[in-house]
Design a protein that fits this description.
Length: about 230
């Protein structure tokens, strides 16, 4: 484990006291009615602990929100599924990341996730990808793990790509049949548990990434985001 294991924060060194941070949070069919999802809540609390100034908006109100601010945000944190949209509209001086990317660093191994995302370029229609959801929520239409990411992959690689999906603790012991694993942000699991999954993938020489990192790669902005 890293020397600072247990001492990390979600936003790490990206922010400091007094920074203006904008959260872009689509409230679409996937968003639970009447509340925010756990990664958003945890990130807001982390920013408040850092004594940041926290603003929020939905994707369709991004331009209006930016226009209403006296200065550009130091950091914009978005839902990964609108990464490209937010990137194209953000001020040049504002850093950009996503909730899933923050959790890739906070609970996982970002370097391995980033390295593994690059293997997407070598996948073929004969390849097999495993989507690993950590929670067991009831899937809805346009679910990011069950529909959006598989569709993005097949658009890039071809309709014949095989995508298997597991959820909760149902993570295979034998990963050797897969060419890539893409895991969610793992907000429901602790870092120790996530790292055991990553170590299993490494031991079997299977690339492993997460939702936000993979989407950033597929959107062509992985080298332009912050973590």
């Amino acid at each position: 484990m890293p020397d600072d294991y247990g001492e990390e924060t979600i936003t790490g060194a990206l922010v400091e006291e007094g920074d203006l941070v904008l959260l872009v949070m689509p409230q679409d069919i996937q968003a639970p009615k009447g509340r925010l999802i756990l990664p958003q809540v945890q990130t807001i609390r982390d920013l408040l602990d850092h004594k940041c100034l926290v603003m929020s908006c939905t994707t369709d109100k991004l331009e209006d929100t930016l226009a209403a601010l006296v200065r550009p945000p130091k950091l914009i944190i978005t839902d990964s599924q609108v990464f490209r949209t937010v990137y194209d509209k953000k001020p040049q001086e504002s850093l950009l990341t996503s909730f899933s990317v923050l959790f890739a660093e906070y609970k996982g191994d970002f370097a391995y996730y980033k390295e593994s995302a690059a293997t997407i370029s070598s996948l073929t229609e004969e390849s097999k990808v495993l989507i690993a959801e950590c929670c067991t929520h009831a899937p809805l239409k346009e679910d990011i793990g069950r529909e959006k990411i598989p569709n993005m992959l097949r658009k890039r690689i071809g309709a014949g790509l095989t995508v298997d999906i597991v959820s909760g603790t149902d993570f295979p012991k034998d990963l050797s049949n897969y060419d890539l694993i893409i895991q969610c942000g793992a907000c429901m699991f602790n870092k120790k548990y996530v790292m055991t999954r990553i170590e299993r993938a490494k031991e079997q020489k299977v690339p492993m990434s997460n939702y936000g990192v993979a989407i950033a790669y597929l959107s062509g902005i992985l080298d332009k985001i912050s973590y």
